[in-house]
Design brief:
Number of strands: 0
Largest sheet: none
Radius of gyration: 24 Å
Helix content: over 70%
Mean pLDDT: 81
Oligomer: single chain
Number of domains: 1
Distance between the termini: 6 Å
CATH architecture: Orthogonal Bundle
Number of helices: 13
CATH superfamily: MetI-like
Low-confidence stretches: none
Amino acid sequence: MGRYIIRRLIQMVPVFLGVTFLIFVMVYALGDPVTALFGDRPPDPATAARLRDEFNLDEPLWKQYLLYLGDILTGDFGTAFNGQPVTDLMETAFPISFRLMLVALAFEAVIGITLGVVTGLRRGRPLDTGVLVATLVVIAIPTFVLGTTLQYVLGVELGWIEPAVSPGGNLDELLVPGLILALVSLAYVTRLTRTSVAENTRADYIRTAIAKGLPRRRTTVRHLLRNSLIPVVTYLGADIGNLMAGAIVTERIFNIQGVGYQLYQGILRQNSPTVVGFVTVLVLIFLLANLLVDLLYAVLDPRIRYA
């Protein structure tokens, strides 16, 4: 297992370099960040030259990228065009988005897997049909429609929640935004779990376990569920990065100042250091989440071993 982890970490290096280089090129090569900073007004030549020198924009693109990598190794993700270090923005944004991701992931795992197992064991029955229809409705309705509707009903009409989340992003305030963020993925987890459970119930090892007289609950939990969760764990692992980076709409609706909010502001103001810095960290989160998923395979299925 240790050799496998080391090999996977080494394999992450070229992936990380390739992805971050593409991001760097797309952000810095397509347009002039300094010119975009001044908007419609032409920048003062002296000020523009000073900014290009400060942010290494007067260097060739490959050299800019190498300088950026060197700064990352020291923990420096650059400085935003307003003079604020990008790491300061990360210190406030990532904890909020991480809590929001945990809430959404909990909704997906608990509700999605539970509904998937129940409907998979009762395939073709009215409950199964009702859950399938409900998941289709959730998938079909855009997130901003669900978010604004629930925000208006629960926050404005009923007064059960605050319409906007406080800057600190307390955990209790993130329950409704986390549910909104998780709804579409929850629907996919439900359908994926249902399909996997329904297929495995007809497998020979399940029939053998039942024929030997094992209790139904033990057969379901220890044999059926563990094998059925392998594709679900794959989806949830990949969804960790999506929940961290794809919460722009949800964070805008509930005024959550997390990663999605900072990325939106960075793109809107064409603040290149902010966008590149945040996306670089998200790439690392994606890579580590995929490694964690691979290690969980061996926990769920004893037949899987890594050399």
